[in-house]
Amino acid sequence: MLWWSGSCCGSSRKLSHGTSKELSEMIHSEENIPANKDVLQEITPRQFDELDKAIEIAEIEQYLSRVTIFTTLMPKEISILARSLKPCTLRDGEYVYRQGDFADDFFLILGGSVQKVVESGDGEKPGIPVGNPLYHGQYFGQNALAMAGTKRSCSMKVVGKTELRSISRAVFISSFGPLSDILRRDKNLFDKFEAYFSK
């Protein structure tokens, strides 16, 4: 396992009439459950759509804040990152990427699961599943954000219909600068980063 790999877990955040965030807070507030039923009846279809999007973004923000390489990002930066991720839906058996492909994107799982597969060098034998599948809230492909020109060390295969969010290295750098600069905010984190990529 990479020093920066792992899974994330969290729950949806909260919104109101005025803004989506306030509406979520009102609906999810435990102490206001009776009043919230009345609030729901007053919400327009457009507000429901805003609510749904805001809850998803809040959920993504929580997941991203638990990713090791993003722990030095400020809350505002995490919010920008969450809104920069592109949606992608894959069917059972499809590959997110194949072993040997150039690494360019980081991925977050929002639904379904993804299995790591190590393939034979000649490509004739079927790939071998390695480890447990990754599920909702977990992530993979983070090496792509660190260095250009690297290749995938394994394949990632979808199990069941799976919903992903991704961001390319180019888009990440245009928004936040090189990953190494972000990690320098925490000396211990940066030292681990340097040690890993100096091998």
From TrEMBL:
Residues 69-193 form the Cyclic nucleotide-binding domain. GO terms for cellular component: cAMP-dependent protein kinase complex; cytosol. InterPro entries: cAMP-dep_PK_reg_su-like (IPR050503), cNMP-bd_dom (IPR000595), cNMP-bd_dom_sf (IPR018490), RmlC-like_jellyroll (IPR014710). SMART domains: cNMP (SM00100). Pfam families: cNMP_binding. It comes from the Eukaryota. This is Cyclic nucleotide-binding domain-containing protein.
